Amino acid sequence: MFNPNKIKKILIVFAAISSVAVSGCITPRSKQQTATLLQAGNATQEELENQVDYLAQVTSMRAQMYFKFEDNSYADVGAAEVYKSADSDIVVQRPANIRLKVEVPVIGSDVAVMTSDGTSFRVAILQDGGSGKNKKFVTGTNSADYSELQEKVDDVVKGDSNQVKKSANAFANFRPQHFTGALLVSPIDKTKFLYLLSTTTTEEVDFKLYKKKDPLGWVLRSYYLLDEFEKTGDGSLKIRRRFWFDRVGTPLLTRQQIFDDAGEIESDIVYGKRGKVSAEGNYVLPLRVEVTRPKEKYKMTLSYKNPEGVTIGKQYPETAFQLENEWNLPPLDLDEKLRELQREKSKGATAQENLEP
After folding, report:
1. S-S: 255 plus which of 81, 183, 223, 244, CB 3.0-4.6 Å?
2. DSSP letter at 248?
């Protein structure tokens, strides 16, 4: 039977819902700050590849640099130990040679000297600021994985307030060859690798905006990604490098990532602003290079003390990259230590099998 009261209630509810919907369309919500989308420039893949090849023109370099080391062992809890800058003398030469000497500022006393010939490395830890028990002559193979030895050879003294001791001990896990791929960028090689170009956009903090008291300082920045793949024997592909080109303005190479066989990042390299380098000024190179090693949990930064005093293109003898233990430091052969550890694990596994019923 028709019920006028029921129909009246339905109309009242409908009118209320309609009022809310209409008012929602007419009255906007309060405005919210969002990230600013930065205008992106364009470039062809060939133009981007040419930027990589330009940096690859550097066949050798010798420079006085500021060296900064950051221990990220506590990165999982949001903490890091940043050591003060030290003075360094660095020589790099293709294909993968490097000699790096780090010294205490002002007094000029050597903290560590290290070399790599592309196959093996040697690190002389000359100062530990204490008893001297951490002074060592560390040797190893570039391609070896010493992650199993991390706890055994980790001489970093956590919480030590002595600056020299902390810096010197950190070098026990430092590998000089980690800088070669950053300073001696390998050229594009299409006979060996495949290259794929893509784009991405990331949300970042622009500190220039932030300093201008922008409520957020957030921007959306576009990048070109140039991935380098190696074709394996079974027909699959392995990523070897990824180049990031900042598209704000003229696209510019600002980052290089190097990957291991498992596709994990070995080195994450960030390049700073460019400037003229060498007395002739005929090279425009990044004046600051930052290398992060996620596996070893540290970050290193190199910046030129005197860009005009950099020597580029000189040929150095192989002996310049063959460090000898002239200080008679206690040797630490990481390859031998790794073999010992593997033998211990093998004996332990055998003993466990014998105990099983």
Report:
1. 244
2. B
Q: Which two tokens mark 256?
A: 């290089």
Is the pLDDT assigned to residue 137 strictly greater than 80?
yes
Kindly report the length of the chain: 357
One-letter identity of residue 22? V
Q: What is the pLDDT of residues 234-262, one digit of tens each?
A: 989 999 999 999 999 999 999 999 999 99
The helix/strand/coil state of 89 is: strand
Give the position of tokens 């466990």: 352
Q: Per-residue DSSP letters for 298-354?
A: EEEEEEES-GGG-EES----GGGG----TT-PPEEEHHHHHHHHHHHHHHHHHHHHH
Q: Tell me if residue 24 falls in helix, strand or coil.
A: helix
This prediction's pTM? 0.78
The DSSP output letter for 175 is: -
Indicate the pLDDT class of residue 5, thresholds 50, 70 and 90: low
Q: Are 225 and 197 in contact (CB under 8 A)?
A: yes
